[in-house]
Amino acid sequence: MRLLLFRLIGILEVAGGCYGMIQMLYRLLPFRAHDSAVALIGLVLYAFVLVAGALLLENSERGVRWSGWAQLLQLPLIATPVFSWALHCGGYVNVFATLHLPPHLGLAAHFGSQAFVLAIGGPAASHLGINLLALLSWLALRLR
To answer: Which sequence ranges are marked TM in the entry (predicted)?
Structure first.
């Protein structure tokens, strides 16, 4: 069971990391100063996730450790007027709260996708959440 979970996590990391790198390279092409810096950070993050997934598929102990870090990077969902952060590779199941009057909970899910948001500033109505898929993947990687 452990091997099957690790393979599934590794496949999602490799696919999401590869697709994310392609998207970040596409964003880098116009060479705009602000967007290029964010795209370069995203490129490095997606490359890290891709390598972590490849090492995990090889059943390497380093792959387990790096994949754990890759899952922790995908865990938070922060969208505030001051700062925004979101990362997912391969898919997500986000549970989030909108901190606006009246506050409400939401659930969003998608597989076969990638996204990276890093911004100073963000939406007027703050959202805070957690990626349940990343949390479950991180917990599965903790199985020994």
So the answer is: 36-57, 69-95, 115-141
